[in-house]
Write a structure and sequence with these properties.
With about 200 residues, the protein is α/β, with parallel strands linked by helices. The protein has helices at about 20-25, 35-50, 55-65, 70-80, 85-100, 115-120, 135, 145-150, 165-175, 190-195; strands at about 5, 15, 85, 105, 130, 160-165, 180.
């Protein structure tokens, strides 16, 4: 039987490091510590990913707080490319696609990152649809984001395998009726074992 698959992105398909972005703008800010830069705008980043502010507003507010003297374009470029591919997961997704399993995305993300990673990484071409927090207006593990995703993609939760790296999000997925599997990118083999228990096997 074919299952629908629902994937988180961060630390599942793509590993990420927000400090990469702040280090790129560090010399243009009155703040000097990368850790301080991140802490100063952390609440704004949450607002961005929850769809409460748009990208331009985020950059303007962040720039004011950080004493950033560069352009909006440079800021976005600095923060968009903070990812590296999780190659074992990319391979697994390719095999799932070849087997005919419908693939979907469910991610807490934003209007800076989505245009970048969908443009730069071919793996995202294999997905039939995506539900993003900044478009829905709720972040995982809020119940509404799961319900919106299920409705948007006409998913049957009892036949949908949901993969996420955060326990709180997995709990939210289970409450929505999804077949939720907690994922650790450093123990990829455990995911393969759990999928095998569901009758889904892959090449290593």
């Amino acid at each position: 039987m074919l299952h629908d698959f629902l994937f988180d992105i961060g630390n599942v398909i793509l590993k990420f490091d927000f400090s990469v972005g702040v280090r790129r703008i560090q010399d243009r800010c009155s703040e000097t510590s990368a850790e301080d830069l991140l802490a100063t705008i952390s609440d704004l980043t949450v607002e961005l990913e929850a769809g409460q502010i748009d990208v331009s507003t985020y950059v303007a507010k962040a720039s004011e707080r950080l004493g950033y003297s560069g352009s909006e374009k440079y800021f976005i470029r600095a923060f968009e490319d903070i990812f590296t591919l999780n190659e074992p997961m990319v391979s697994l997704i390719g095999q799932l696609h070849q087997k005919g399993h419908p693939l979907y995305l469910l991610s807490n993300t934003n209007g800076i990152h989505v245009p970048f990673f969908t443009r730069e990484y071919a793996v995202f071409e294999l997905f039939s649809g995506a539900s993003y927090s900044h478009e829905i207006g709720h972040m995982k593990p809020h119940p509404q984001i799961y319900q919106s995703c299920i409705e948007q993609h006409h998913l049957n939760p009892t036949h949908t395998i949901y993969i996420d790296d955060l326990v709180a999000n997995i709990v939210g997925g289970e409450k929505a009726g999804l077949l939720a599997i907690h994922y650790d990118p450093d123990q990829h083999h455990l995911l393969l074992e759990k999928l095998a228990q569901l009758g889904i096997e892959f090449n290593d």
